[in-house]
Write a structure and sequence with these properties.
metal-binding, about 375 residues, mainly alpha, single chain, globular
Length: about 375
Amino acid sequence: MDQNSSEILAKYLLQLQPLSKEELLDKIRGCIYGQALGDAIGIRTEFKKAEYSANVWNNTPLSLLNWNKKRKIPEGDWSDDTDQMIVILNSYLQSRGWNFQDFAAKLRDWRNKGFRELGDKSGFGCGQTVRRTMSHKEFLNNPHLAALDAWIGGKCNLAANGALMKSCILGIINYNDTEQVIRQTKDIGKCTHADPRSLSASIAQTVAISLMLQGLRDINTVIEASYELTSNFLQNYTNSLDSEVNSNCTPEKIAEYNEQKENFEERFNIELLRRYMNIDLPALLPIDGKDMGYAYICLGCAFHTLRQDNFEEAIREIIIQGGDADTNAAAGGALLGCKIGFSGLPQNLVQELLHKDWLEDKITQLINALGILID
């Protein structure tokens, strides 16, 4: 990692108050369950307008069950957001590291088959950017190139939320090495998303998770540190794009890329990142328009949720606004779940998760892989 990042991190590490083992396990489980719960609750108003969403949830207790609507997935299940997070986890558990080809192969396999042990016939719900990247002829061999080509083909403006929606697990793995967390979040994120905003949104989330798990307890300080480290990444990554494109892409793609460079300063401005990381929800609205899949909208929802204390109230506040409700609630649920721990989550909703036992087994495997002994 670059010197600036190390210097930024050093001043915050002095403020750590290490967690007990019980606190650490509680926060890890809270992060993962928080993602799954936010996802499973948010599906009900996914892609809906705010007015519709408010009518669904106003004066109605949050629940994953008893929805009077035909759905593509069973009651109590989560969506592709959490599925893809688990694909990342499976790749890590089987390799104890990061192999891009392995992750790409597992993601393709999930899209074709889903999780057969859960009765899936296929994975569904992939966003446009992920579909475009996975259809690239080089995806299995070089997913980073596939994502880069797809991004350039979208006029270097595919800043989708599909990297952020699955990234929380990358803040848990190697959580005690924040610089490694940044590297692995970038490397896995680049398998599907090349836009600096998509990657920065993911890194902001995983850095916050990493720091909370290390014992940075003041949430305003967590957000400040996450912004500083993420803005440093954003500048460095944006500056590296010319070299990456010129070294890997065809002359035609390079020409397409060069045509868009005049827009980069406005699109990849660190002050834009700061605004969305510190925005309150009313200032973010509306989030149910054509740009609902924008990574920074999800980022704003996630960090707004982190600043709250009550899980049900915070998730309700997000999902009644419609838009990409499951993704916004999943990203926010992961952050708030890490903050308050599994013990702070609504246990009635946890019990409604369809595949709770299967998810719990995955978490146990992760904890064992991290070397945390369970009493």
